Amino acid sequence: MLTQGGFELTYLEHDTFRIRAGGLVVYTDPFQIMPQNIKGDIVTITHDHYDHMSESDLRKVTSENTIIIASVNCADKLKAFEAKEKLFVKPGSRIERLGLTFEAVPAYNINKFRGPGIVFHPREYLGVGFVIDYSGSKLYHAGDTDNIQEMGSLKDISVALLPVSGTYVMTPEEASKAAAVIRADVSVPMHWGAIVGKREDALKFQELASADGVKATVMEKSST
Question: Rounded to two decimals, what is the model's pTM?
Fold first, then answer.
């Protein structure tokens, strides 16, 4: 568990965190997790790939009172999913619910290719990351992305959650450079150990970021 800037984080798996802020519970990109006794007030989903938009895992963290905030590319997959409210966003969208503000920011690849000249996550695909603002403290969940220029616009971030596995997202080296630009109070590696990436990638990120004077920590995963 990590406490920083009014946020209390538990790392569950892949890009999935349980975040407590102001008495509320937010889950991010539920995937390959155990059913959770604590249901989310809000769930964010960065894009519709199966390891981020998993309906079976979404059911493990939601109730009839849950609000879902998801990329517009999730709309079709969530059409029949029941929730208190479903809100679909694209980069630049800003939503306030239950006293928390969610800003959708760009998330895309620049050098991770599925074929010649074709990246895994194109900019026009409209995948997102989220900046969650709780009483002026900000948490950045990067989603699936490379080290993109828009990260330079992120300011006053308390916690940055950055993918480090390579293949589809940043490598540890690229993520450490992104962390050095963002300069969050603490940076945490994610997107490792489930599909691609190993714990060694997370530890390498921590080592490289720390060498650049960035506070970084590898969180232990929890099943509950």
Answer: 0.98
